Fold these 2 entries.
Entry 1:
Amino acid sequence: MQKFLLLAAAFILTSCVTPAQLQQASVAEFAKMREELDVSENAADRAFVQCVADALIVQLEEPYRSYDWDLELFEDDAINAFAMPGGQIGVFTGLFKTATNQHQLAAVMGHEIAHVTSGHSLKRANSQAATQVGILVGAMASEAVRNNAGLIVLGAQLGLLLPYGRAQESEADIDGLDLMAQAGFRPDASVELWRNMAEESPRSMPQFLSTHPSSDTRIEQLQARLPAVEPVYEQARAAGLRPDCSR
Ligand SMILES: [Zn+2]
């Protein structure tokens, strides 16, 4: 915990965070998570998540398409997924409770990848006000009763995955929707996903929700965008992009 706090403080006290610094920190944080959390040994689950990630990543523009993307599936009930600015993507097996097929999983991963391609972490790291540290540390203390994964992820959020602003969340939703449609995933699955999330939220989603806007708001925004992306999806399917990922 102390280490995470120091890491967070270091980020905030550094007046300007460079992309290289963020990428280095991402690599270190992700390696630590692999050591400290349970990594899934379920080959089918791992293949499922990798299959969706591959289908999305190949649709990215450069330089992101050629990024050194690194995916890990963590065995943990938390309904969560994240992507770090260095291209590290973490998915928790708890996410399968709400992302029940490849299209819904693509909605989550497309959103997280969009945070990376939009450079949201860098903007956020460079706009942190010192007063926010106190708020975040308070939030962390109140979450301290959560399981090990929750703590570590929260630590990672302090350094790398601090809650995004509402505008960034909306941007990631829209960019993620475009990306999944380009890859041949059914865009309306994003709405299904957030309905599933809303059903689960009272019990098991404090962490995920705390960094994301309400389901109602995002469902409305996604629905408004669907007519624009349906043709993109149809085109992708016609061009033979028909991902076939399952557990
Ligand atoms: Zn987000």
Entry 2:
Amino acid sequence: MNKNKVELYPPEWAFQFHGHLCPFMPLGYRMGIIAIQHMGIEREKDHTLHVICELGEAHPQTCMMDGIQVATGATYGKGLIEKTFYGKLAATFWFPQKTPLRIALKASFLDQFGTQEFFAFRKKGIEPSQIPEEITMRAIEWAYSLKKEDIYEIKEAIDFVYFPKKGSFNKDKCSVCGEYVFERYLRTKDGKSVCIPCSKY
Ligand SMILES: [Zn+2]
Ligand SMILES: [Zn+2]
């Protein structure tokens, strides 16, 4: 596969992981690939790259975040991706000693994209898995046909400051339920260490 193809097409397992065919998971995937190529880093194996997404919840297009995770390896499970809940279709990619990179979907792109038939189905409340595949594919292929500059605003975010949380293996047992709790989450009640649910705060 040439470099351009890799940038465009998520692997088949990405669609299986995501659960349905939709245009936003691939758009997130392409965003993630652009970010790691621009920053000159590899797909994250461990815990270094962080992605700070400006998405919120209960709005369309949050599917992008699954594509970003697939492309970058900065997964939710590894604690490498988070949301600011700004309700914006943008993300900043942070890696030590590299200039952070912010990528946003352009309003001009979204205006045009919104005229795809796929969105007429979505606005009627039809879930992506229920939309005819050829209609979804038309929206995906249309986005694939565009140059990245037509879709994304790509900007180095020199002023972006981020401090990843320091990992700790320390844990203790909750004196009420007896379950292990990682240090950061232990609370003190009547002089004893307790978990958050048992603390009833
Ligand atoms: Zn989706
Ligand atoms: Zn407890």
